[in-house]
């Protein structure tokens, strides 16, 4: 019996379970730049074709750093968070705009003999995230760095009902028309909570959460999270774990951390018994 027949038979219960579910997927800027990005797009298209309601949140940190460097600007951080002054905001807008267009273009491809053939996807984006300024913390003014105030739940659900993939960028807008630079983890977590998503899927550089010996943590329960956060500190894995835990506390049924560098990691996590990341 061909291997793919066996795989499909074992995957069918997961296909049925995921149909009509809402998944929020967070892909950092490093993941967009990675050579595996094209495969991730194909896997997202496959999920969409199987009836999953998809919200894709993208990051832009390395792209912002590149633009700052090209303009001779020095990045500034406080407590691991970017300080977005007026000059930095211009770099943020430039980076996010280019990324959003590039992602929309990739999702619009209709390549023969590929998972994209005949997909005819519609990608929807817009002013779906309202933000507010972080302000002054410990005497440090964050300027145009903000945090999510509200996610347009009704608007996003309407787009999902129309079978669009919703694309959220790490920018938010205030009622007075100001633009704020947001953390993609914050956008993804708040979107998952406010939409009542069935899953939050977070892409990172590693296969998932790794323990002290570098081994993959196959499953993590809420009571185990504080010890791992204390161990990880300000490491990016700690940021991902914090986002995953916050989403679960907010009512999201399940959070997963998977690798953007491993081909098929998303499908392995969702459609096999053992998975491939850390749920």
Structural features:
about 280 residues; two-stranded antiparallel ribbon; alpha/beta; 14 strands; Carbamate kinase; single chain; 10 helices; 6-stranded parallel β-sheet
Describe the structure.
The protein is of the alpha/beta class and 279 residues long. The chain has one domain (14-271): Acetylglutamate kinase-like (Carbamate kinase, 3-Layer(aba) Sandwich). It has helices at 3-18, 29-33, 37-49, 61-70, 86-107, 153-161, 184-195, 225-232, 236-249, 265-271, and strands at 22-27, 53-58, 77-78, 81-82, 123-124, 129-133, 136-137, 140-141, 146-151, 165-168, 171-173, 179-181, 199-204, 254-259. A hairpin with a 5-residue loop joins strand 11 and strand 12 (179-181). It is globular. The two termini are 31 Å apart.
Task: Itemize the secondary structure elements and their pairings.
Blueprint: H1 3-18, E1 22-27, H2 29-33, H3 37-49, E2 53-58, H4 61-70, E3 77-78, E4 81-82, H5 86-107, E5 123-124, E6 129-133, E7 136-137, E8 140-141, E9 146-151, H6 153-161, E10 165-168, E11 171-173, E12 179-181, H7 184-195, E13 199-204, H8 225-232, H9 236-249, E14 254-259, H10 265-271
Parallel strand pairs: 1-2, 1-13, 2-10, 5-10, 13-14
Antiparallel strand pairs: 3-4, 6-9, 7-8, 11-12
Helix pairs in contact: 4-5, 7-9, 8-9
Individual helix count: 10
CATH superfamily: Acetylglutamate kinase-like
CA-atom Rg in angstroms: 19 Å
Unreliably modeled segments: none
**CATH fold annotation:** Carbamate kinase
Taking all residues together, what is the mean pLDDT? 90
Which secondary-structure class do the elements indicate?
alpha/beta
Span between termini? 31 Å
Tally of discrete structural domains: 1
CATH architecture: 3-Layer(aba) Sandwich
């Amino acid at each position: 019996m061909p291997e793919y027949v066996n795989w499909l038979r074992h995957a069918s219960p997961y296909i049925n379970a995921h149909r009509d579910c809402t998944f929020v997927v967070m892909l950092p800027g490093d993941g967009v730049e990675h050579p595996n990005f094209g495969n991730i797009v194909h896997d997202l298209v496959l999920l969409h074709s199987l009836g999953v309601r998809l919200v894709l949140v993208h990051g832009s940190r390395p792209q912002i750093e590149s633009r700052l460097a090209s303009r001779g600007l020095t990045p500034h951080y406080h407590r691991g968070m970017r300080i977005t002054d007026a000059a930095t905001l211009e770099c943020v807008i430039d980076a996010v705009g280019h990324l959003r267009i590039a992602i929309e273009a990739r999702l619009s491809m209709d390549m023969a003999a590929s998972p994209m053939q005949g997909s005819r996807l519609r990608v929807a984006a817009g002013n779906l995230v309202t933000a507010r300024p972080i302000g002054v913390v410990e005497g440090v003014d964050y300027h145009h760095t903000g945090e999510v105030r509200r996610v347009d739940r009704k608007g996003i659900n309407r787009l999902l009902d129309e079978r669009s993939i919703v694309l959220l960028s790490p920018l938010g807008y205030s009622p007075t028309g100001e633009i704020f630079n947001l953390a993609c983890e914050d956008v993804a977590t708040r979107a998952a909570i406010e939409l009542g998503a069935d899953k939050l899927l977070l892409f990172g550089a590693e296969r998932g959460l790794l323990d002290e010996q570098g081994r993959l943590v196959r499953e993590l329960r809420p009571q185990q999270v504080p010890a791992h956060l204390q161990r990880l500190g300000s490491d990016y894995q700690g940021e991902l774990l914090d986002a995953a835990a916050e989403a679960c506390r907010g009512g999201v049924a399940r959070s997963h951390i998977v690798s953007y560098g491993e081909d098929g990691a998303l499908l392995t996590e969702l459609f096999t018994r053992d998975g491939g990341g850390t749920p």
